[in-house]
Amino acid sequence: MDQTLPTAEDITAALRAGEVTSAEVTDEAIARIERDDKAINAICVPDFDRARAAARRADQARARGEDRPLLGVPVTVKECYDIAGMPTTWGMRQHRDYMPAEDAVQVSRLKAAGAVVLGKTNVPFGLQDIQSFNEIHGTTNNPWDHGRTSGGSSGGSAAALASGFGVLSIGSDLAGSLRTPAHFCGIYAHKPTLGLAATRGMVPPPGPALPVEHDLAVVGPMARSARDLSLLLDVMAGPDALTLGVAHDLALPPPRHEHLRDFRVLVLDEHPFIPTGSAVRAGVQRVTDALVDAGARVERHSPLLPDLTEGALLYTQLLFSGSVARFPVESYEQLRVRATGLSADDLSLDAARLRAMVFSHRDWIEANSRREVHRHGWRRLFGEFDAVVCPITPTPAFPHDHSPDPRERRIDIDGVEYPYFDQLVWAGVATMPGLPATAVPAGRSPEGLPVGVQLIGPMFEDRTPLRLAELLEHEIGGFRAPR
To answer: Where is the Amidase domain positioned along the sequence (predicted)?
Structure first.
């Protein structure tokens, strides 16, 4: 596979210079998909005819003197976004024929910016896994090792980018669904501040596509370079025109610093609930060394850090209390009986997940109130630091595991097994308080698998971790395609 896949910035520059046409770039992307995707299975719903037509229109627009941020650039879209004329299933067989009538707001923004949509990328059933497989579209493989997962739930998008199937993609993140696939596939992704980018039209089928405000969940960009993340975030960011957009304009503050030497960074590689594997520790250390060598102020401990144990429990409660909202009454009653049988001394994450599934509204309000205390703690920490560097998951990409009951799955960390869903705690560090977090490549494991870290920044200061990602890309390198 080509080691020098172009970025969106590269392609845009070539299009503007007249060195290539969108039709040529699009045909090349389609040819690559048709040649290589049988082994990867990233593009679950191709849309090549409409993509070629959109590319021709982009070339005509450029010939008329038009220039938009993504004019003529080939992109992919996570399957969970509504696109008129294409099925939206979320990997659920009962909705395999559901066809939305209009585009999701983010798809509309992509098209308005001139992007050429190649098709949709694969997801897990209901977007509820750290892998991407379902009964409709099958399994997406990791481009670096086809026996391993590409991650979830934006695993199709991450695998597509690593394989050269388009230069940008849009995904979503509730439990690391942007960051984990980026880490597993060696690309970049950005989980925006909660509420920064409108989500209308990214809704379980059959809809309706209403401008609701989701708890924890965000939509965000994926790319092969840090600068491309910023380019795509500028297209995606902003309130929904049906709600806050009626009165609000977006004005993100600039990054806090322009040089690595000026950043104040807190580095974390230990979590109270789960160990960090040696390969991921090495990635964190590589980023730390680059920061220190550049003259940044780096600390490994701070009394201002909100308690990670309580934060993980709160995240677990908020995440899993929402996951059962559409469960049948019978299933809910079974969960309630199991939760009642838990020992009061059982403080494991498994127990927290089960208790959260049967939360009362009062329980949720209490957890939400404690979340606000944590958010204020993070505000205080970001008065002293500009960013936090930490793992995304404890390991590189793991082998496919399609055991029907995820509670029976295990994650192997340096030879010791832990409950499968415990690996979500690092994603929750940013997700629970709604902070922005940028996933960046940080080297490879001894087996040659990609390893990434996340750069967490202050709320609504997304440009700070994004700028830090750009500077680190320059210092330690960035995306490299699989061979």
So the answer is: 24-464
Give the global pTM.
0.98
- High-pLDDT (> 90) share of the chain, %: 96
> Is the confidence at residue 324, as pLDDT, over 90?
no
Which CATH number is 8-256's, of 3.90.1300.10, 3.40.50.300, 3.40.190.10, 3.40.640.10? Answer: 3.90.1300.10
432-449 residue pLDDT tens: 999 999 999 999 999 999
- Rounded to 5 degrees, φ, ψ at 297 are -85, 120
- pLDDT per residue as tens digits for the range 410-435: 999 999 999 999 999 999 999 999 99
The segment(s) of the chain belonging to CATH 3.90.1300.10 are: 8-256
Tokens of 179: 């960051």
Is there a contact between 191 and 436 (Cβ–Cβ < 8 Å)? yes
If one counts every other C-beta atom within 10 angstroms of the C-beta of residue 82, the result is 26
Q: Is 403 one of the annotated active-site residues of the chain?
A: no
Phi and psi angles of residue 181, each rounded to the nearest 5 degrees, phi first: -60, -35
Indicate which residue of 153, 154, 169, 321 is catalytic.
153
Q: What is the pLDDT of residues 72-100, one digit of tens each?
A: 999 999 999 999 999 999 999 999 999 99
Catalytic residue among 22, 78, 225, 230: 78
Give the Cα separation of 196 and 220 in Å (integer): 9
And the tokens for 103?
């585009």
Task: Determine whether 78 is an active site residue.
Answer: yes
- The single residue of 177, 225, 321, 445 carrying the catalytic annotation is 177
Distance CA 429, CA 176 (A): 10
- DSSP secondary-structure letter at 123? -
